């Protein structure tokens, strides 16, 4: 149970971090294109 909880928590954290990184990357690209 504890191991499964840790695994689930890790996967959720990775998914959230990836989503945030992609969102920030898209915002940065949009800002650069808008600046051009």
List the main descriptive attributes of the protein structure presented here:
36 residues, mainly alpha, 94% helix, rod-shaped
The Rg value, from CA coordinates, equals 16 Å
> Structural class of the secondary structure composition?
mainly alpha
Percent helix range = over 70%
Low-confidence stretches: none
Main beta sheet strand tally, sense and closure: none
Counted beta strands: 0
Strand percentage, roughly?
under 5%
Number of helices: 1
Along the chain, the helix and strand elements come as H
Please, what is the average pLDDT? 90
Give the terminus-to-terminus CA distance: 52 Å
Assign an overall shape.
Answer: rod-shaped
Please indicate the count of domains.
1
Walk me through what this model shows:
The structure is a single chain. With 36 residues, the chain is mainly alpha-helical. The protein has one domain (1-36). The chain has one helix and no strands. It is rod-shaped. It starts with a helix and ends with a helix.
């Amino acid at each position: 149970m504890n191991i499964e909880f840790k695994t689930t928590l890790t996967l959720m954290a990775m998914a959230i971090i990836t989503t945030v990184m992609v969102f920030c990357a898209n915002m940065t690209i949009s800002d650069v294109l808008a600046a051009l």
